[in-house]
Design a protein that fits this description.
four-stranded mixed β-sheet; globular; single chain
Length: about 80
């Protein structure tokens, strides 16, 4: 699939090793579309409510990779519609 290569977002930093985020300032969030099922993983700032997009989730493997890369437990990830 040629177009998937261009449209899929890669995790910040090239995907090497564990990445960090400020747990006191941000929480992990999965934005889900109720219309088409599209999902985007990222972090939501507690004070401003702004969402920082990290990667586009196409498959379960993408979600598992995001969770592993940032050291997030599946229970910590909140879904927002």
């Amino acid at each position: 699939m040629l177009f998937g290569k261009f449209w899929k977002r890669k995790p910040e930093g090239g995907g090497r090793g564990k990445k960090m985020f400020d747990r006191a300032r941000e929480s992990p969030v999965l934005h889900c579309s109720i219309c088409n099922g599209e999902q985007v993983a990222g972090f939501k700032d507690h004070s401003t409510g702004q969402f920082r997009e990290v990667c586009y989730i196409v498959s379960e493997a993408d979600l598992e990779g995001f969770l592993e890369e940032y050291g997030i437990a599946a229970e910590e990830l909140k879904k927002e519609y």
